[in-house]
TrEMBL record:
It is found in: Cytoplasm. ATP binds at residues 12-17, 43, 101-104, 161-162, 184-186. It comes from Ginsengibacter hankyongi. Its cofactor is Mg(2+). It holds the Pfam family AAA_26. It catalyses: (7R,8S)-8-amino-7-(carboxyamino)nonanoate + ATP = (4R,5S)-dethiobiotin + ADP + phosphate + H(+); (7R,8S)-7,8-diammoniononanoate + CO2 + ATP = (4R,5S)-dethiobiotin + ADP + phosphate + 3 H(+). Mg(2+) binds at residues 16, 43, 101. Keywords: ATP-binding, Biotin biosynthesis, Cytoplasm, Ligase, Magnesium, Metal-binding, Nucleotide-binding. Homodimer. This is ATP-dependent dethiobiotin synthetase BioD. Catalyzes a mechanistically unusual reaction, the ATP-dependent insertion of CO2 between the N7 and N8 nitrogen atoms of 7,8-diaminopelargonic acid (DAPA, also called 7,8-diammoniononanoate) to form a ureido ring. One of its GO terms (molecular function) is magnesium ion binding. Its EC number is 6.3.3.3. NCBIfam families: bioD.
Length: 209
């Protein structure tokens, strides 16, 4: 089975929160190959704290960079070069479904000429796009979809995070990619609330993937 790559319309849209829900729902493994910024903790550590099942394995990052910035700049600050084939070479060998989280959105540079877009292509992954259900999101979402289409990338569909507006069907229709699920604003983010969202999402995920 292809790995599932969780990208988003940008940074801070809720990729890690959605990744926790999807990972828990499928009892999948999780991998964040490029982490830029870890003063407040890494995405991997956060996922580890939010998962309830005993099957999930969290695979170590390949690049763990200090600066909370675009990975190409965070890498430059540490005199590191992000090499895509080194990430691909370290793709975790697991029989379990693998959830991979990107950094920011699709057109985030990893080095002078390659982007998250190129990484997910090289990893031959199937993509879930996380988008926020808020004003401005139609534009961000359709630009993201345009890049995925141009590159003929295999897309499973959208997961919308935080329901400020009802844009889900609009964006699904315009893009032609299906709506997988919607996640409400969670007043409390705990193992229990993640597990409850995972239960709600399980069936749609299993159907699509
Ligand atoms: N549905 C939600 N309810 C409440 N808080 C949320 C929700 N989704 C995301 N958040 C909060 O918004 C912030 C950003 O979310 P998250 O870290 O998942 O974004 P991200 O897309 O993974 O960012 P990055 O590009 O840094 O990986 C976090 O503090 C998270 O807890
Ligand atoms: C620091 C942040 N939380 C992420 N790790 C990296 C986001 C990169 C975004 C780059 C950009 O689109 O401007
Ligand atoms: Mg994240």
């Amino acid at each position: 089975m292809k790995p599932i790559f969780i990208t988003g319309t940008g940074t801070d849209v809720g990729k890690t929160l959605v990744a926790a829900i999807v990972t828990e729902a499928l009892q999948a493994d999780y991998w964040k190959p490029v982490q830029a910024g870890f003063a407040g903790g890494t995405d991997s550590l956060w996922i580890e704290q939010m998962i309830s099942n005993n099957t999930t394995k969290i695979h170590p990052e390949i690049y763990k960079l200090k600066m909370p910035a675009s990975p190409h700049l965070a890498a430059k600050a540490e005199d590191v070069k992000i090499v895509l084939k080194d990430i691909v070479r370290h793709l975790p060998k697991t029989k379990n479904t693998l959830i991979i989280e990107g950094a920011g959105g699709l057109m985030v540079p990893l080095n002078k000429r390659e982007f998250i877009r190129d990484l997910l292509k090289k990893l031959k992954a199937k993509v879930i796009i996380v988008s926020k259900n808020e004003l401005g999101s139609i534009n961000h979402s359709l630009l993201t979809a345009a890049v995925l289409k141009k590159e003929k990338i295999d897309v499973a569909g959208w997961i919308f995070n935080e329901q400020y507006l009802n844009y889900e069907n609009e964006i699904a229709n315009w893009s032609g990619y299906p709506l997988i699920a919607s996640v409400p604003h969670l007043n409390e983010i705990t193992k229990e609330t993640i597990k409850a969202e995972a239960e709600k999402m399980k069936e749609s995920l299993q159907k699509l993937l």
